[in-house]
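INFO  loader      accepted 1 record
INFO  loader      residues=254
INFO  predictor   begin
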Amino acid sequence: MTKKLLEAQNISLTIEGKHILHNVSLDIDEGQIVTLIGPNGAGKTTLVKVVLGLLEPGSGKINRRKKLRIGYMPQRLQVDPSMPISVKKFLQLAVQARPENIESVLQEVKALHLLTSQVHALSGGELQRVLLARALIQDPQLLVLDEPVQGVDISGQAELYALIASIRNKHRCGILMVSHDLHLVMSATDEVICLNQHVCCHGLPEQVSNDPAYLELFGKKEAEALAVYTHHHNHSHGLDGEVLDDKHSGHKHG
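INFO  predictor   done
INFO  writer      dumping tokens
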């Protein structure tokens, strides 16, 4: 059987006249971690929704392995404290949840001690571990994680990324992950795709971190918080994907 889980080819999407994605392609294989990085508004979450089948692309196509099992961890979860729900009950609501599965996945994400805790009372790191456990309940072949370290402090982020890498190693599942910060995910990523409506650059983390397009987005802002940036590309691409001269600023991006 082929190792390929999913292949997206030349995905473009326009919503209410705004171009969200333009000719974006990506492949995900068994046991591969692919990380999407890019500024706010780059289309990362939209691309995730296309991969999940929640949005239909305007053009392009997606080929998924037949009967592909996907586990999804959303970017954030709003929990109403006036409607208390325990971690156990929350996980019981997941598709295919069984008591033995619930304890097993909580054990795997090192959160079994939270079984009877109220979801609304969890810390940021605890909530992310519970959401990760929920995504694992279906024994996914592809795990899709949208900002899995949202609301977690730096030390907790490193622990979560290490946990994600161990999950890949144990289950040999493919992982598509959205992140703001390449530096934190370098050790847990096989391929990086730098997105800003289109694919600016892609490859191994160390290759991307030295790519002119990546440096244009991130490098000049390293003195500031890496998760906060507002850069927008003002260049265009040729038919071969090469960056053309920026006629407005009079220099090449490379």
